[in-house]
Amino acid sequence: MEHVPGSFGTSASFALRFGQTIFSAASLIFIYLAMVMAIVTPWSILLALTDTYSVLVKLLPQELRVLSIVFAGDFVLSFLSLGGACAVASATELLASADGKICDGSLCIQYQVSAALAFLCWFLLLASALFNFWSLPSLYY
């Protein structure tokens, strides 16, 4: 099996999962993306633990079914987090432009920070999905 940097079970994948966990947990602290990030955080933690085990044992997961599930989960969750981030960003912009009485300074800043963290989480999830998609054909040969 060809080792694709960033694919499931590598140290680069662990770094991506760690970033996803940090950004999704930080976005949960600001509460506004709670539904999506409540799914992304345990998913990223579980796969980060699996990546850690794979790196320590130096054994990459080579089952097509496992890698397909990881790819599908990353792909779906990346677009869910993108949708949540876009929704929060657009709602924040709408509230901020509405005469300023609806959204005071600290509330709008919390929304903006939550949306920014969700965008960063989306970027890392999509990168993980693309790396895993890239490594899928190597399981056939």
UniProtKB/TrEMBL annotation:
Residues 30-124 form the Casparian strip membrane protein domain. Keywords: Cell membrane, Membrane, Transmembrane, Transmembrane helix. It holds the Pfam family CASP_dom. It is a multi-pass membrane protein. InterPro entries: CASP_dom, CASPL-5. It is found in: Cell membrane. The chain crosses the membrane at residues 21-46, 66-92, 113-134. One of its GO terms (cellular component) is plasma membrane. Its main location: membrane. Belongs to the Casparian strip membrane proteins (CASP) family. Homodimer and heterodimers. This is CASP-like protein.
